[in-house]
Protein 1
Amino acid sequence: MTQSPQSSQPDDPARQGADTVLHRFGTWARRTPRAPALITGDETVPYSVLDAESDRLARHLTGADLPANGLVALALPRQRELVTALLAVLKAGGTYAVLDVADPRGGRRQLAALAPDLLIAGPADAARLDAGKGLRVLHPGEGADGTAPPHPLPPAPGHGGAAVLFTGAAAPRPVPAGPALLLAAHEAWAEVARLTPGDRHLFTAGPDTTPFAAGWTRALCSGGALVLPESAAWLPGQVRRAVRKAEVSVVHTDPAGAVDLLFAQEPPTPAAVPFRREPDAELRSLRLLAVSGDRLYLDEHSALQDRLRPGARVLNVYALTEAAGTGAWFELPQLPRPLDGPERISLLGTPFPGCRVRVLDGQLAVDPPGGGETIATGDLGALRPDGLLEFGGRAADRIEAADGTRLDPHPLESEIRAHASVGTALVARVAVTGGGHRLVAYLSPPHGLPAEVLPDTARLREHLSGKVPAGSVPRAVVRVRALPRTRAGREDRTQVPQPPLLLAPVPGGRGGGKYGGARAAGGTEEVVPLAFALGCGAPLLGLLARMFTGVIWPGSTDLTGVPNPWALLFWILYLCESLAFGAGVAFLFSGRGPMLAQRRGRGITTAAHLAIAYLLIAWWPQDNLYRLAAKQDWPRQAALVYAFNVPLMIAALVVAVYATRKPRSPFDFDD
């Protein structure tokens, strides 16, 4: 099945042969030189200034012998400098690629996949990214003050100057985007979004991702303005303030960013209620919200629409890196009639102008705008009877169910979302201690609701009973505040937390992040260090304590004159005290992880951990000090009682509270 757009830009070969996104920017720079091109906080950069600054840097690049179509990697944390640099690269007839500066490790992977002719970066970023590779480096201040070599700036070539974009996968893959594709993608967006010179655009994604690296043209090639963060990236709460302050009219974001923007000011909801809200008066300037990066369900789409003024639009964009951020798009007016089960449906709508989408054996294939090879997306989908494309998941996410069949998780996750208390859902196949695998459902609540409203395993299985095959029903539930996502906004299945007490440790698994490995959740790999510490470390520490008892407390264990069998019994007692001390020290350093896995609360677990360690450790110094204290030395006897006996009582009380506290479900997870 094939779907093509209802309309497209006129195909004028003569015009296309001379036209580029750079020419479009130059046209607006000449036509409206004083119009704002970049807005960063209180600073506004007009088109004329941006054009002049990029001219100076382009002359410097030309004087630096940048080869025709030479590849220039850009590692600039300030997006104002970044936009200037990428325009300069295009003016010098080169190709730009934006690197991830926020994550030097990711930036180095991108750089290794490029082999660029030149790196534009500050000294610190260049040192972190280059790592001794010996690349030619140009610092952003060079050539920006008019001191560049006096080479005239040549006209920008009609078929030179393009971009290299990066996919959002864990291992970034560079994708070339030629000048024809960049221009065709801009024209497709201009038609769908109805871009105007008065628009002010804000991108929440990182500058190295496709939405920004290819999407800047939507503003600067249509006479609009780019609203940029003052720091390297947008911080929580800044996007909303920037939209209000700069009167942003178009926001490009991902599903999580859209919820943060439109529902951040909503008070917590005490119970599961319909997700409908009144329009947000603070976002009155917003006329278009473009959401891409991951699936957006129909009920979520409708909820976002409710938060905008009448007449504002919400687009669900199926954007491909290989198509420079185009593919397919959907908005609610495309629906020919109301649909049942909106929480189960994610619609991609219709292709962008110039694109064509085909469904081949259940998988989506896209012909990019401006021509080019067909893109095999690896995504699943269907062309509905109403003519709209529907998203069906990703072939790479297929997992093996308990009965051995191959399972597409998207339909199952969509069915889970139909539960009134579930906001987002993700199903993964995880390893179980002792061998085998198990299906686990990761759930997060609707916006404004606490994680406690999420169903447990029994309630979820009841909800799915009769709706999905028995072998596809998850065997466990992990409740999280939000699903982990990549920098491109896609749900990250590789970073879901491992349920404690259930899963085998994953060799080489990633950890340390917010949703990292099982260590953060008190996973089962903590049991091995505990067993090792108690089995090997405790006896060794105990024997050392026994050996040094006579050194620290001379005469405290002297059994001279004590007849057998009493002398033997006292010697065994002294040995047990020393071994208890060793076990307490070992437990102090290795016992907290397994106790956290019991899910009884972090505060009471910490107190109980210290109390148990004290109960074991205290006997060795306490008894030795008691034996050296005279029975009639009342001040010393009182000091020992209050120094040891009272804390022992408190420790026992803490352990009692911990032991009687009801543990949470072992599959709940709270970051």
Protein 2
Amino acid sequence: MKRPFSSMLGTFAVIGILLFVITNWWSFFTGNKEPDILSETMPTVSKQAAADAAKAHIAELTGYPASSTFVVYQSDKLLSGYIQKEKRVADYKARFQERAPIDYYRIDLTDGRGAEYVVDVHMTSGAVIGWRKSSRENAPSVEVGRRIAEEVLRKDGLSLSDYSSLRPNAATPHRFVFEHRAGTIGGAKLLKVVEVRGGQVTAYYNEFRIPQSHLDWVKRQDQAASAMTQWNLILSSVMGLAAIAIAIASRKQISFVRGIGLTATFLVLYWINNINMIPAFKTLEAEGMDPFFSTEAAVVTMILMTVVVTIMAIICYFSFAAGDPLWREQGRRLWPRWREPGFGAHTLSSMKRGYLLAFGLLGVQSLLFFTAEHRFDMWAVNDPSGSPLNMLLPGIFPLMAWTAAISEEAIYRFFGIALFKKLLRNTFLAVVIPSVIWAFSHTQYPIYPVYTRFVEVTILGILFGYAFLKYGFATALFAHAIVDSILMSFSLMGMGGAGYVGLGAFYIALPALVAIVIKWLHGKTAARRAGAGVDDPPPNSGDGFRPSKPDPV
């Protein structure tokens, strides 16, 4: 008799879809606009057009032709966060979005003399909104520098009477700042910044000075997120060492081929993603690094990330190897082997359960975000380092859904729950503790206050853990991959164009295609083995696999 999963999971899926629609289109249903929500700006100006505008600007400025070397999407996270926290989004959009946009293109250029520049270009108007030149020359005297800076403002058609001049900071004597007397939004002040070195202007741009109280608050939040991320690294490394020790101790009872295919898939896809994100690594200057962060430095960052990912793959592999004997020791079978006759059918059933579970989980996640936003003042800032706009091939971005699903379900569910159940003899704690460790790693996302993301991911982790114990590893794996595929595909579709919409639809359907192909390949392999007279393990009932009765969670 087959497990009647459709009724319970089907109901969960329907409720999830309703929650997802209601919470994401709440303003449509209520008729109330929500101006305090910012979303990533979708450009109407192409990167090539932005690069052309930047080249023309530098050529006009210097009299030398310029060539562009790189174009990235950038975002002012501090301004974005401040106006959301202070409920000033509508005011900002009405008064400042055109001259001081939160999202913009940043173009690296070199002129005919070899001088390096970065130019910022508006993503929808194509106007140049600021520029900088790399220079190590000395700053002029305050009097000379201010006179040169004031002349720049006059040439730009600005009235000096609209600005108050601020004395240069001792740490940046080359930086001359003019505060717009009426350019305030809450406690933030609009500034014109002119940098002067060696008697020449080396930078001219707009900037908002954010109140120190907000900067201090964000710093404390980021420190809390950093601490939780560090705890994730520490505890995940300890779990990795435990997995290696258990695998070695159980080496005579396990197959070290187990999980190697999934680990290789994780590793290859992540390596490809690291190369794909080289433009994103160049946006690190927004986190306090040099605006002239070179392409070579971005490549070095990519190589370091590849080393980190390889270490993650080792932990993932040994989590598969060690989790299997732990579950067999507890009398549980949560992941069938390829050689079992029911493996293909079980994979197909797991995919179906995975879609139903994913729809339900998306609804739960949307409800958690909605509650956090409306009751706990949660807000998020755009993250250029994770945007498809900063990828060499945006179309392959949703493949990352599989890397997260494979590694996290292996480490925190398949191995993590087994490990803590063995140590604590308590199923609830065995599910909660890995979920908490897993949630620690998600606080690095730019969502504030950071505890809201921690609570949300912990709850989702507990639900994933319950599904894992009830339906097995493959269901949890498919559900995780489907949830992330849907969210990443929506991001891809948001870039516009029939091509990206079609790709997004393909990635949402990809888990089903993977399961169908696995079932077909398994059937072919089983038929070939039967023809060769090779004995397989005896089949199980139903879909060929059924976890033993789960412990209560």
Protein 3
Amino acid sequence: MDSANKTSFTRRDFLYRAAAVGGTGLLLNTMNAWGMGIASTAAAPPQLSGSGKGKRVLILGAGLAGMTAAFELGKLGYDCQIIEARAFAGGRCQTARQGYTLQELGGEAQTCQFDRGEYINHGPWRIPYHHQSTLHYTRLFEVQLEVMVNDNDHSIVYLEDAGPLSRQRLRPAALKADLRGHTAELLAKSVKNHQLDAELSADDQHLLLDYLAHEGQLAGADLRYKGRSGRGFSVNPGAGLLPGAGTPSDPLGFKQLLASKVGKVYSAVQDFPMQNTMFQPVGGMDQLAKAFEKRIGKKVRYQTEVTSIRQDAAGVSVTFKDTRSGKAGKLAADFCLCTIPLSVLRNIDTDFSDKFKQAVKAVAYAPVGKIGLQMKRRFWEEEDHIYGGHVLTDLQGINTISLPSTGWQKKKGVLLGYYNYQTAAIEMSALTPAERAEFALAAGQRIFPAYRASFEAAFSVAWHRVQYSLGGWAEWNDKNRASAYPLLLEGEGRVLLAGEHMSHLTGWQAGAIESAWQQIARLHERAGA
């Protein structure tokens, strides 16, 4: 080949193709192998020297950010007082179980009717292994963890609009095997026939073909994909002559898979935060909040709604309303750490500068909805042999059905009937709790024949209608990350902000915790100045 016609094959080219073939997961794995990874390194609170004795800090909000700050500042001798509008600590770290009551703004009160021992994590529900900040406190506080199955190859993918594969219960294992197999066959043949436009040596091509043959389980000299055992059998292997070796299943056709547009819900490799195996506290995610509360609960003033924030050169004052008595009051401190969501803070009377107020208003919050459905029997385990993981679907308003990762083989269980966002969440929130349950049941019935007959009780939440939250999490864009985010991180005067919204881990408990770590270091520096 004439060297003048050769195409340079750079790392950028390879990363582009890795992303195209394997998604974000393969791209990140490749970057990690080259020492270009982006995993968080925040695994412990900052090591701060000096003392905070004699200084008082008002912390607004007893979510994980506020309680983290109070716990760590307390070790330095700061006198911390937490003001919390709710009657309990944890913020959005909530678990609904028997007797738990929630009333959305403009809606009817719901009291959870699940059987004792059953629950739904209607706030945060999973902890990735690389969120070492969250795991720091579960380990320190001895919060018992169990595996949360975040990906299950034996679960179901059900699509209403999938062309030739519409309305079929497809197993993720089969989809992964067939898509990888067919794609590997296509790429292997292009390598073998020298059709790649990239410059690869003969040795590179040989190694790539070996990899593709293994990855796609390609057979023979013609490198054909004919299916593999990992996609499942039509008759499983067993003892004797029947079933004996079993009967292999036939792979889905490549053209069928492409026409189905299954890529709408399918991913060969999980995105970085979405590990296949995650953790959850035994008994509910609020066990982490309760562990914090056990240690700093005496510092929390509950059912106390902040009405104004003022500051001067000498300190900060916060006025409040006791929601039980209706009486007003006022507290003063040297510094204030505000962990109130920006969606709520923007409605509080403050003396922040106009520029800072505009930054607070610049961030939208995600409309998010969840519903837990208690079933009187675990039909997904008994009939479909699915133990945890998600059912992925394009059914309108559903997005994800998630099966419990605890209580294996018990009689009853609570599954997540939908987890919706944006427009779907807004539309769902306009329904009554009973109508939401009916919507979820009608959808699930299309996938599981036993769905409706097994239903016993429901509990739902629309986070954008929950007072003191007004959204699931902060949704930054490039523009306000560049303008508002640095301004809010710096705080104003004696007031600093913390919470998941003040991180790049929005929507995760680690974002709240790591934000608190960062801001207590900033506060401690200012207090000693």
